[in-house]
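Subject: Protein record for review, amino acid sequence with backbone structure tokens
Why sent: The fold of this protein is of interest and is recorded here as tokens.
Notation: Tokens come from a learned vocabulary of local backbone shapes, not from coordinates.
Attached in line: The record itself begins immediately under this heading.
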Amino acid sequence: MKILENKENFLLNRKEIKLVVTSEKNPSYEEAIAIVGKEIKTVPENIVIKQVKGKFGRDTFLIVAYVYHSADDKVKFEPKAKKVAPSA
């Protein structure tokens, strides 16, 4: 595991992290949260995975994540899921 970027965003109270992970298969979002949480030493409730990206034929994957300072900051700044109206 190698951290490519670890930038502090003071305006949004979060760290913006890019890291490369070696794995035999594409890590799920839950696995990516566990990897970032272990590396940064924070609780999973404060982590948002934005992207897990791999290239064909390689065993390395890029994970882009935001680590908020608190759960309140995460709720405050992350976009809410849109509700879909039932179709008739």
Remarks:
- The chain has a mean pLDDT of 92.
